[in-house]
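Technical appendix A lists one of the benchmark inputs used to test multi-chain prediction within the project. The record comprises two sequence entries:
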Amino acid sequence: MARFLEKLRLQGPKVARPGNRVLSAGQTEANWTKCASCAVVLRKKNLDDNHGVCPECGHHHKITAFERLDMLSDSGSFQEWDRRLVSEDPLDFGQDYLEKLAGDRVKTGLTDAILTGRCTLDGRPMAIGIMDFRFRGGSMGSVVGEKINRLLEKALHERLPSVVVTSSGGARMQEGMLSLMQMARTSAAVRLVNEAGLPYITILTDPTTAGVAASFASLGDVILAEPKAIIGFSGARVIEQTIRQKLPEGFQTSEFYLSKGFIDRVVHRHEMRSTLSSVLGLLCGGTQGESMAKGEKA
Amino acid sequence: MSTILEVEKPLIELEAKIRELREVNLTGGVDLSAEIRQLERKAQLLKASIYDNLSGWDRVQIARHAQRPTTLDYLENIFTEFTELHGDRLLGDDPAVVAGLARLSGQACVVFGHQKGKETKENLHRNFGMPNPEGFRKACRMMRMAERFGLPIVSFIDTPGAYPGIVAEERGQFEAIASSIMLMTGIKVPIVTVVIGEGGSGGALGIAVGDKVLMLENSVYSVISPEGCATILWRDVSKARQAANSLGLTSEKLRELGLIDEILPEPVGGAHRNPGQIYTTVKQAIERNLNALKRETGESLVEGRYQKYRLMGRHREASNSELPTHP
């Protein structure tokens, strides 16, 4: 079957489906985009309405932190925390770096690579942090660390479950060792919510690697991941250079780590909200409905 | 690996010349002692000027020096007993991390650290000090044991980084590092960490969360190797020197940033030039810090550790004009 599909794919040109269209070469209308995986041309609006999931092949494109928030929270329930925190240039990497930070703020509407705050999901309050790859590749510097710490500390004081959606290439090199230390301080904060018996759930999206993978991302009580997200500690290029051979197909994907036992579930983006809501509800415990209460009486 | 640093060359040449003159002085019947004294003074000045002005890149070379004392050297020379313990009780034993029970001036403790080799064969066995997940999991086992028996922990840091290999990734390198870091933040016994050589990124931090983090003067501690940084930022590995000087990986810079607690002075030219001296320095520093930490309860150690790491970061509040509009 896979071979048959592969043959079809190679045969091209793409078959236009309702709502999608094949663009002729050089056509660059602002309303159209190409799937990053199967290369089919899509109406931007169709892709957006489908939360960045290609209607043809199911590829999960990266989406913004705000789009993610809309999907995972009750409309209008979000109150942002610590929006004013911004990065410094502690190692004097220079004007170029500062301009990139300022540019990313304008481009993303975010003040650093993570959006944090409080919201409800199906009426249940929670603390949420969502990383955005568009901001310096989702890299973790002091601000990401500080916001994760504040998020988890607030969750602790208000006794809220917390959810963190990751998307990051790792530590922010321009902050040198300050960024490495964010791995320690965020992990220390996760330990606090662990010990307080508060659920901490992580959702790994493409990509979640290096310093972020090796700290708060992989410490969730429950770890969910989007399909085909790249996850891992070392980058594929570095590994290939070290071992001097090509990596196997599907290496370091969510499905790979599901089979190796390092994540709990691979969840389609359209199912993420209901899965998260259910997991949170179950971890927060208590009884729901009548049957259990009746059973106890009997 | 070369055992002579680029910056040391003029000094090594001068020292050779002095030796030569001394021989002539003894055998040749000509009195050269005035010349020799003059050259010795020159050598001393040169030494000072070389080692007082070491760049980040020079430090990387010293930290990676093939003759630099390793974890096992410290275990052998400053501890009175050491029983090595093996295995992570899950899958295997990682030779890149040595661990066990040891005694320092009468005090029993748990010790673990990265282990590099001194020559090729040993380096292959030790995987150049680059741990697989089993190394971190072995360290975790030791931490839990230390806590159960109320033994302080000493960890030695000397690794280019966690091993970037297929099998390492398959067995969850990221999970092993994260779990080790988190565990270490909450262990209720004193932890003293000494960076003795290279502190390579997450592979170092995985076993380097301490109440006191000490760093040998010429050791380095970095978020990424200079080579890796140059490749990623400038797509050019030959800019490693520039990267090393930009990354702020020296003991002085890290002390200034508040990321380490203490710098341990090395013999002129580096620890390898006078190992006896560095053993004494390291021994006294560990003893002093453990003695101070011993007075605290487990709870206050963990709370203090949290507060210490909590402060590691630099951020500022944006002005109104800098705030972007919500989309």
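Residues 8-18 of chain A have pLDDT under 50 and may be disordered. Chain A touches chain B through 70 residues (CB under 8 Å). Comparable benchmark entries are summarised in Table A2.
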